[in-house]
Each structure stands twice: as structure tokens, then as C-alpha cells.
Design a protein that fits this description.
The complex is a heterotrimer.
Chain A: H1 3-22, E1 39-43, H2 50-65, E2 69-73, H3 80-89, E3 96-101, H4 103-106, H5 108-111, E4 121-129, E5 132-137, H6 145-154, E6 160-163, H7 169-181, E7 186-189, H8 193-201, E8 207-211, H9 212-220, E9 224-229, E10 256-262, H10 267-280, H11 284-293, E11 297-300, H12 302-322
Parallel strand pairs in A: 1-2, 1-3, 6-7, 6-8
Antiparallel strand pairs in A: 3-10, 4-10, 4-11, 5-8, 5-9
Chain B: H1 2-11, H2 14-32, H3 38-45, H4 54-79, H5 88-99, H6 103-137, H7 141-158, H8 163-177, E1 180-181, E2 188-189, H9 203-221, H10 240-262, H11 267-282, H12 295-310, H13 312-318, H14 324-335, H15 344-347, H16 349-379, H17 385-404, H18 408-425, H19 431-453, H20 457-462, H21 465-498
Antiparallel strand pairs in B: 1-2
Helix pairs in contact in B: 1-16, 2-4, 2-16, 3-4, 3-14, 4-5, 4-6, 4-14, 4-16, 5-6, 5-12, 6-10, 6-12, 6-13, 6-16, 7-11, 7-19, 7-21, 8-19, 9-17, 9-18, 9-19, 10-11, 10-12, 11-12, 17-18
Chain C: H1 12-33, H2 47-65, H3 80-104, H4 106-122, H5 128-148
Classes of the chains: A alpha/beta, B mainly alpha, C mainly alpha.
Amino acid sequence: MSGMDETGIRRRALLGGLAATAGLGLASRAAWAFPTQPITFVVPYAPGSTDQFARAFGTEMEKILGKNVLVETRPGAGGTIGANYVAKSAKPDGHTLLFSTSAPLSVAPHQNQLPYAVSDLRPVARVGLGPNVMGARVGAPFNDVKSLVAYAKANPEKVTFGSAGTGGGTHLSGEAFALAADIKLTHVPFPGATPAVAATVGGTIDLALGFAQSIVPQAKGGRMVAIAQFGKTRAKILPDVPTFAESGVDLALSPLVGIWAPKATPDAVVQQLAAAIEKAATGPAVVAFAQSTMTEVEFAGPDVFSREIAEESAMMKPLLVKLGLAK
Amino acid sequence: MEGLLGGFIVALKPMNLVFCFSGALIGTLIGVLPGLGPTAAIAMLLPLTIGLDPVSAIIMIAGIYYGASYGGSTTAILVKIPGEAQSVVTCLDGYKMAQQGRAGAAIAIAAIGSFVAGTVGALAIGLISMPLVEFAIRFGPAENLSLLLLGFIVILVLAKGNVVKSLIMIAAGLLLSMVGQDVITGQPRFTLGIPELTDGFGVVVVAMGIFGLGEVFENVEKFRTRSMQAVPVGSLMPTREDWKRSAMPIARGSVLGFLIGLLPGGGATLASFISYGVEKKFTKHPEQFGNGAVEGVAGPEAANNAGAAGSFIPLLALGLPGNPVTALLLGALIVHNVTPGPLMIQERPEIFWGVIASMYVGNVMLVLLNLPLIGIWVQLLKVPYRALYAALILFMIIGAYSLNNNPVEVLLLLLFGVLGYGLRKLRFDTAPLILAFVLGGPIEFNLRQTMMLARDPLDYLMGRPIALTILAFGLLLIVLPMFSKVRQKLMVARAVNEL
Amino acid sequence: MTGKPSGLTETLRPRLGAVAGVLCGLIGTLASLQLPLGTSRLLGPGAVPLLLSLAMTGLSLALFVKPGAEEADADEEDGGLHGAAMVALVALMIGAFALLLTRLGFIVSATALMYGLYAIGEEKLVSAKALLRAVLTALAAYLLFVVALSVNMPAGTLWGY
């Protein structure tokens, strides 16, 4: 990290560039030098959760790629400021990557005029699949999906659910549930997932949605009831909480966490990165992180990930329009 | 009690003492840099603790937190640059004291006040944390709202000079706090289509700009007309009179701060505001407030430190952080493979009690560390201002940039610096603006949330005795002085009659 | 009231503040009216700002009509036109720094800013002392923040980072 190092890096980058331009014949796949300098994960959220996930991956990828992996937080505007930075200001050489939830690419584009297009970022790998969990306050007149739906049908709009903010993932998941179960809930937004969980623990509201990490410990401690998880199937780290599908509500919504590169990043670099990420996903630092944060770490390559984002985006659009949140 | 003893055994292990001390030291050094506060310090140093075992890591991080909070008060007093919202109030009288050559006394009082408060806070956590936390989690939007309104009344109390001007500043501060995405509806307000404004203005940028940079501009203006004499350094230690006047404010600040710190959405900042207002009510010298009253440093400094201790309780007892700093600590626990939650006390008692015991230890270390350092910090005032101001500007810029790694924050800092300078030229008191800005967002949010939850507002309020009690207390704060004025007038009238 | 001659006479000053307040209040009112006001149960995003903007307009009007006496601490002297120019210069340099930071990188832009500020402090346009101090300050800040505390200050796109 000293000045000496940096000039060294610059010289190497320069040599690499010269080699690449000197003769295309020489530039076989093996000669394509990547990585040539430290890799930076740009996390578009304030320090505290996603950046820790990125750090865990960074630790493993350093071992695989032999270069430092730095994590830089660029929070703001629901993740779109950091996403825009990678889309527009980062060199498309694979050294600057976006490590984020899918919201800046599947939700934000429907809500606001953004300075970047979805196509400005190319998916490299999906690394996390939530899971999101719905929890109820202790003493609520329901304790599973069936009784919740029955109660909400009998008392429209009486059940309150807390989200981490209007238009965010937890709000949309809650509304998607209400839509799928054909019930009416009253949405109460909070500035973040933790205040919503705290309000449920305190009995101010009936339901809270959030990552398993914020709800399951409360449920284990007897201060909340975990009602359902949002994944298609039960997450490995969460075998005891039923899915919505099991409870008769046709709904599966896993928040995607993944890695993107600028659009013009070469295919070979994306492939190399995806391979490194896949290997890192089973490394000890990532496994330990998954354990302690109850995160479902699941690798998927660029193609699967692209499809998932497109599906999510297609599902979110009508929902946002219906809620009056679309641009 | 048994748990606490166990905690001391953990905290007093030589290794943990070292981590506690180095955390406090590094935290102090970072906090003393203008523009960097506890949140920044923890975020920067978190990666350093990765290799440590969880208990040591958390002890070190808690040390960083306390140290950075102390350090922030130091810059607030010396150069009027608050590193975090919780030292904004300290700027008011602390900086005035420094200009009167009493910087050493102000810092010492702040250090002792924080020490007492931290110790009281740690003791309270050790003894009665569980019943307290049961009380605290019952706080819903209505209770938060009444508490915030109490803080708001305090702003009215502390406003000085022309009342209409203060009210204009309050309205302006509240309006500024509404810039950004509306949390309830998700709609952007007054953002002019600038993405960086979606989350509103950051408290640190606003406070640092209006107070810190505004003050620098004010001094730059006078380069030519005033020979920039360095501020006199004066005696390093508080006088006997200072001690006498500070004792009760520190005691009150400790209790108040601890109770408010417990609450979600309360925390150290609100605690310091309320303490300031309370002290201005209790003092025999209200006219000195805003002009270097030692009570105005002692009370809020005790309150914000006790508030910091109090805000640990919901985190440690339930895994529910109430403010950004404790949210970062939650992240730190997770990094160290500890899952915070209601079961942590049973599953990992060494962490819960170890952290609490380390609070005592940390506070002792901090006071031992900081009292000798006062002499060094005060020397800073001897640096000629024409050279010092450049470094102050650079530090503030770096602090602003590092908040979000975004140069737009530097432009916002500049904007608020110019605003602060302009307001001073127009003879507006900027303190009500900043305080209203800090409280504005939460007040509006809790107001609208309360209205969403309450189908019949009056009925809803009647079912919430805590909220009612707080509101009644606030009303008393307004009404009582009126009574005493009326009584004074009556007495005067009677005296005149008797003549 | 010190009666010192200054850029702003003491009768004009409070009125100027009031005018600024009225303007801000009116702008706020107009901007709030663009937003939905909602109902009394579900306040819209415009409701609270509208109320505040109206209050601000009213209060500023009141201040305009009755400016009231200046506070006791109003006896501080002004820096005059020269002082105001200095402040504007410093502000411009900070603004330029913010705009150039990403391109030039931290070390270069910080050195330039520091040189400007020290030069203003010395009131000399060219000063070897200011340059030396500027380089040292920028370097020290780099070592402290970027190297020791790993704050991510930009290295500068112009140099190929």
C-alpha cells in the first residue's frame, strides 16, 4: 500500500498494456494478464452488512487470485450511487466490481430515472440467496401462515407489517405476499430493518420482514415467531422455518446478492472471475460468515444470474406500478 | 453480580487490558482529527480486529468508540468542529470557553464528566439491564415522538437573542432535514434530481459545515483587520468554582443520558440536547449559556457518554442496535462469529459481562490517558491561525469525503460552510438550525408513523401512558417558567402596592 | 450598535435576513405544493414541509416589519470587502478541489489546495515557504489517512488509476 508498491503496480500495468498492444498474436488466453493490480469490491451500502459479506469473499479470493481484494463502500440512494460508479467511472478491466443486492438493477430502474442503464453492468456471479424471513410479534392472533391469512382475511388492513423502507426489498416482499395470499395488510415503513424488528419485539406492529440474521435470533430467544421464509425451498441454514409454498401461498422471492462488472469487461476476465468466485464460495472465511450471519451462500454463474435478475425485474415492475412507486 | 465479577475477570486479563487501552488510545487519536467521529473510527478500524478472539475484539472496538467520542469533544471545544452529532452541543459553550482561554478547563471538565457518566452507566447496566430493556422496547413511535418533542422544547429554551430569528432558524433546520427520500412514501423531496441528495444531508456534514467551516470563514474574513493573535491558553485545570458548578450537571447528565440512551431512536445525541436544556433551566447563570458556561459543557458531555453506555443495553441484551454506532458494533459481533440476540447473555455470557466490565476499565484508562493529553491539545491553539486554518480545512474535507467516499459530500460541506458564514453575517444564531435539523427527520417520521398506527389519535394516546407522561413533563418545562414570571410580577405589584 | 462603518449598515442587515427568509419560505412553499399532501390519517410527503415553509414565510415577514434590536454581541467588526473576497477565494478553492479530486488524485489536489490556503494566510501569491508547507501537509495527510487509516482517497484517474 506504500508509494513504492503503487509505482510497481503502475509499471506492471504498463508492461501488460504494451504486451497486449504489441502483438495480438502473442496475446493468447494465457498471456492475458489478470489480475494485474488489487481488485476492489464496491459495496453500495453503508458499512455493517453487505460489506462484511464482500470482505469474506475478498479474503478467499485473495488466496485464489494472488492479489489484494479491497472493499470500498459507496452508499446512497438505495445502492444506485455505488452501482453508477462501477457502471460509469470504473475501468472495464475486471479490477473494479460491484458487490451488491440485485435491487439497483431489478427494482431501482423501475422507480427512478437513473444515470446508468441495466445493461451497463454485466453479471459475473450470484453469491447469496437471502433468505428473507417473516416474523410475527409474540402474542399476535396468529402463529403461522395459515392462521395469519385467515385472520387477515377476516380483519382487512388490521395486520401491520414493518419494512426497512418504502420501495425497498422488504416492503416489496411483504406486498408480494399480500398479493399472493389475496389479503390486505397495512404497511408501516421504518428507517432500516432493525427498527422494524425492534418494533415487532416491542409489540408496536404485528409483522416484520428481514434477513434471517435479524429475525431468527429473536425467534430463538422467544421474542418473535418466525412464520415463513421467502425462498423456493428451505435454506440449508434454516431447516426449521417453513416456506410460503409449503403453507399454501404461491410465493418465492429470494433476495439476490451478487457481483457485477462494467459492461465492456472482456469475456475471458469475467469467466476467470466467476471461476474464482465459485471456488471462494466454499472457502472457510465464506462458510464461517454464512454460519454466523445465517446467509444462504449459493454460487451461480453469469448466465443463470442474468436470467434471475431479469425474472426478478419482470416480477417487480407490475408490483411497483400497483403500489404507485413506479416512475 | 456474579456475572459482573466474571466480566471483570475477563476484562482484567492482561491481553484484554492491552486491547482496551489500545482501542481507547487509537480511538482518541482518530476522534481528535477534525471531521472524524466514532462511526468513522469504528468503520476504519474494524478490519484490524479480525484476527482477534471475539471478546478481545469487542472490548477493543468499545474502547475505540469511547475514545473517539472523547476525541470528538476535544475538537468541538478547541476549533468548533463536531466529529459526530453528539458533540454538537459541546461546541456551543465549549468553544466559547476555549476562546476565553479556558480550553484546558473545558476539556478537563468534559473528560471528568464523561468518566463519571461512563462509570454510572456501566454500573447501571451491570445491575439493572434486564428490567430496563423490557421498559425500553415498549417505546413505540408515540413515545419516541413525545421524547423528541421534549428535545425540541429544549431547543426553544436554549435559543438566545431575538425570538423570531430563532424560530426562523428552527423552521429552516426542520426544512433542511426534509430534503431527501421520504421514508414513509419513498418519494424524493427537494432533491433536484441529484442522486446524492436522495438520503438527505448528513448530520456530520451539516454540523461541520455550519459550525466548523463557517467559523473558519469568519476568521479568514478578519485576516486583514484583526491581527490573528493566538487564543490565550490559560490554566489547564478547572477552577474550584468550575468544579462546584459542574458537579450537579454531571450527576443529572449521567442519569438523564443513561435513560435516554436506552431508548430506540434516543441515544447519545438527544441525551446531550436535553441535558443542555435542563442545565440552562437549573443554573443560576442562564445568561452565561452560549457564552462559555461550564455547566453547558459538563451536563451534555456526561449525558452523551452515559447515553452511549445506555445504548449498549438493547444491543447486548436483545441484539437490537438503536443507532448507527451500535449497528456497526452489531456488524462487528457478527464478523467475530457471535450472533447477537436475546440469547447472547446465556450463550456467550463472557461477551456480555466482559464488555460491561471493560466499560469501567476503559473509562478509567481514558481519563488517565486524556488528562495528560490536555496539555498537548491545548498547544494546538498556539499554532498561528493563518497556518492552522489550512490544516483544519483539509481535515474537514477528508472527513466529509470519507463519509461516503464521494466528492459530492465535500461540495455539500462547502455549501453549508457558506450558509453558516452567511447566516452569521446576517446575525442569525446557527445553533437552533443545527439542533432542529438533527431532530427534524425523526420527529416528522415518528409523527407520521404514529398517525398511521393510530386509527383514533386521542384514543391511541390515552392507551400510551409513557408518552403522556413525557408530554406532560415537556409541558411543565414550558409552563413553569411562565408561572414563576407571573409570580414575580405579582410580587412586584404587591410590593409596589405596599409602598 | 457600534456605529462602525461596514459593508452592511446595521439597519439594512436584519431586513436583508428577513428578505432571504421570505424567499426561502416561498420557494419551500412552492416546492412542497408539488408533492402530495395526503390526508390527516396518512400525511403525504408535502404536508409537513408546507406547514414549515408557511411558518418560515410568516416569521420572516414579521422580522421584516419589526427587525428588533441587534444582539449585544453584534459589535464584532466586519472584515470589509477585502475580507469577503478572501472568503470567496477560499470557498472557490475548496469547490475546485472537490471537482478535481477524482481526476487529479488526492496528493496533487491536496497540495494545490494547501498551497493556495497557505498563500492566502501569508498574503503572498508566490511563496516558497507556502509551497514547502503545502507539500509536507499533503504528504502527512496522505500518510495519516490513506496509509495508516486506509481511507479510500482517490488516486486520480488522470494518472491511469
